[in-house]
Amino acid sequence: MIYLLCKTALHGRPSMAASPFFRRFCILRSYPSKLSLRFVSTTSNQNSFTLSYLINACGFSPESASLASATLASKGILFETPDKPDSVIAFFKNLGISKTQIASIIKKRPELLVFDTEKTLLPKVEFLRSRGFSSSDLATILSLNPHLLARSLENHIIPSFNIFSNNLSLPDESAFKAIKRFPRILTMQLEDELLPNINTLREIGVRESHIVNIFRLHPRTFWMDQGAFKEIIDQVQKMGFHPSTLNFVSAIRVLRSLSRSKWEWKVEIYKKLGWTEEDVLKAFKLDPTCMFSSAEKIIAVMDFLVNKMGIQPSVVAKAPVVLKLSLEKRIIPRGLFAQHLMSKGLVKNFSLQTLFYTTEESFLQKFVNCHEEKKASELLKLYEQKLGLPR
């Protein structure tokens, strides 16, 4: 409307051009004030400096610098001098954080460049160090989850550690391991996102030691919607897992990680290799993580065991742990060696678990050192040949 009114006046229509006030109004609209020009110029200069700093000091590409600069501008953050960002980068360098890691931190949380290093950043770093984090640990965790530094030390970070120690009875060392595996956990709302799922497990009789064990090794397991988590628990119970067993929480971890389509795809692979659906369920109950093995690994191991060694697929289903072992370093050398022993009548039968899953020391004691010295020496040389070890 304003634009149309000005246009009419400038074209000299008598009804409006006669008004002096209207002419003055249009002139004001046509020429921005000095204040407006100064603001635009200042903002442009600040933005230009920010872009230049991100490219030259942080190693950003022009595209990454533009994105980070836009993020800063959206938060009303622009800087004209390098003083504050320089101090932040120096702070990170003094922690042993590499240039690449610093760039990663700033890309994910560019506003950290204007944080006060002494009042805001240092207290959080000192607290984490007091909990056992080394400089290399801090570098890794902060580059993966720099949002942690934007959290309140008193209102979020310390309470999170209190939950680890008070609600989970986790010593600092175990909490430290969980955080390293899933750094995002320190920026979660643990009371709302973590504890409800853990309490659900407690209510159905899952042992505290099993909860702590899974949390320490696989903390991501508990990070999901409460309703979906309860649905997985129901599935696991219907499969016949008992809450008192460690495999119960292991099965939850697997089903939480695999989509339904991925699960069905793995089942079809096993069925094509000779397993029945009952075999799949049996194997899953014995070792839920057998569903994590890649299709290529499953096919290769089954091919060797079934086609090279003549073992029935259903027998493999009773020892699914072998599907996770190294084919080249464990299964093939021991399998070929066992075939030689059987051909010489030195061993009649063995379980797959005993043959493949025992430690090297136990294996040698069971299949080599149990023979008289001369024979044992010959067998050891043969086994080393199978391993491809230098003699």
UniProtKB/TrEMBL annotation:
Transmembrane segments: none annotated. Keywords: Transcription, Transcription regulation, Transcription termination, Transit peptide. InterPro entries: MTERF, MTERF_sf. One of its GO terms (biological process) is DNA-templated transcription termination. One of its GO terms (molecular function) is nucleic acid binding. Gene3D superfamilies: Transcription termination factor 3, mitochondrial (1.25.70.10). It comes from the Eukaryota. Belongs to the mTERF family. This is Uncharacterized protein. It comes from Rubroshorea leprosula. The lineage of its organism: Eukaryota, Viridiplantae, Streptophyta, Embryophyta, Tracheophyta.
